[in-house]
Amino acid sequence: MFDLIVKGGTLPDGRQADIGIQGDRIAAVERLESAAAREVIDATGDLVSPPFVDPHFHMDATLSYGLPRVNASGTLLEGIALWGELRETATVEEMVARALAYCDWAAGMGLLAIRTHVDTTPDHLRGVTAMLEVKARVRDYIDLQLVAFPQDGLYRTATGRENLIRALDMGVDVVGGIPHFERTMEDGRESVRDTARIAAERGLMLDLHCDETDDPMSRHVETLAAEVTRHGLGARAAGSHLTSMHSMDNYYVSKLLPLIAESGMCAIPNPLINITLQGRHDTFPKRRGLTRVKEMLAQGITVGWGQDCVLDPWYSLGTADMLDVAFMGLHVAQMTHPAEMARCFEMVTEGNAKVMNLEGYGLRPGAAASLVVLDAGNPTEALRLRPARLAVIAKGKVIARTPRGDHALSLPGRPTIANRRAPARP
Question: Where are the stretches annotated Disordered (predicted)?
Fold first, then answer.
């Protein structure tokens, strides 16, 4: 007797299987023809996936678009300035309410693991207090990792380093930084060395906003790879954005990518945001604003797509749908071969789970019973449609359901129902 069976679904690798759930764990992934369960979800013909994962977000700022005013230039720097104003007036209660509302969206979309950077610049650390409360309140359905993120730089403000340490002592999970925003290149390099030491000494993960700029001479990722190798951090370290790489000359990149691969660190491009923020100083031709995703994948580097922002000072759109992120990513990175599109789906599930070092993730016996049933036949179709999440299961409990995305038509001589899924081939 199972608590729940998801029956007849198609897994991302193309296999068809039933998934038997007992308590908060997957007990079986096989044909369960005669097994009984307290509840059965019929997923015949539908894609059953592990939950979506976002390894890069800013939950302290989410759903604050227009506060204190709209980002008129659309630039990264104006967004940082606006957030600098908002963080001084936003209360803990306001940040908690916005973050919980976003987590409601995420739950409905099957986004059940999120790594969020929390600004540690202000001495009051209200954002840290708020996000620790949110983490505790959503723990039964969303795995939330917090990054101590000195938005204005580790050294650029007098208490930047001190506040980062305070946040870690309060229970924040990951060491963050922003080397390209320090006052000098040398300060940026030293901030990478410093944060890597802190992560190694505390046994924590490391995730730096790194080279989020169009300047090809912003090369802090080289220092990051060296420090990750020096301290043996490996896959516990990540470089986020890495957009300067799109402007670097090919010879230098041919040296850089093997060093990143050798270190074992991960990379987190954020296609929705960087295609919007980068290249703002260009006339034509305009740069794409995305790091070299395909080239890093070819080197064996773990690359995961990040969402970064939803309705905040940097980005005026967003829906908590990681398939939107992957959809933009495959277009900007020109990953349109069927195998590459399938890889884009994997990047917002299994790949991002590796970036976050999640335990118990996946569709296998013994893993956490968290999964999503989608109104699509396979991963590529899911990217094309960004379909309804027919059922979202978090740690053994059904937490969300959405009707199929069919259209009711009233057209002479045509079917009464239209569905955008690909027709079966003869």
Answer: 404-426
Residue pair 202/231 in contact by the 8 Å Cβ criterion: no
What span, in angstroms and rounded, lies between the C-alpha atoms of 21 and 360? 14
Residues with active-site annotation: 212
Structure letter (DSSP) for residue 424: P
- CB 70, CB 399: distance < 8 Å: no
Residues 357, 355: Cα–Cα separation, whole Å: 6
The kind and range of the H/E element at 392 are strand 389-394
Q: Which residues, at least 6 apart from 416, have a Cβ–Cβ distance to it below 8 Å?
A: 408, 409, 410
Residue 347 φ/ψ, nearest 5 degrees? -65, -30
Task: Output the six-digit token pair for 413.
Answer: 């001589």
Q: Helices then strands (H, E): number in the chain?
A: 13, 17
The conformation of residue 172, written as its DSSP 8-state character, comes to -
Helix (H) or strand (E) holding 113, with range, is strand 111-119
Q: What are phi and psi of 112, to 5 degrees?
A: -115, 10
Spell out the per-residue pLDDT of the chain, length 426, in tens: 999 999 999 999 999 999 999 999 999 999 999 899 999 999 999 999 999 999 999 999 999 999 999 999 999 999 999 999 999 999 999 999 999 999 999 999 999 999 999 999 999 999 999 999 999 999 999 999 999 999 999 999 999 999 999 999 999 999 999 999 999 999 999 999 999 999 999 999 999 999 999 999 999 999 999 999 999 999 999 999 999 999 999 999 999 999 999 999 999 999 999 999 999 999 999 998 899 999 999 999 999 999 999 999 999 999 999 999 999 999 999 999 999 999 999 999 999 999 999 999 999 999 999 999 999 999 999 999 999 999 999 999 999 999 999 999 999 999 999 999 987 654
- Please give the structure tokens belonging to residue 234: 């490996």
Q: Cα(379)–Cα(386) distance, rounded to whole angstroms?
A: 10
Sequence-ordered alpha helix ranges (H) in 17-108: 76-89, 92-108
Q: Is the pTM of this model over 0.85?
A: yes
Tell me which residue of 16, 18, 14, 15 sits closest to 27, measured CA to CA: 18
- Phi first, then psi, for residue 54 (nearest 5°) are -120, 110
> Rounded distance, CA 216 to CA 180, Å?
12
The phi, psi pair for 65, rounded to 5°, reads -55, 130
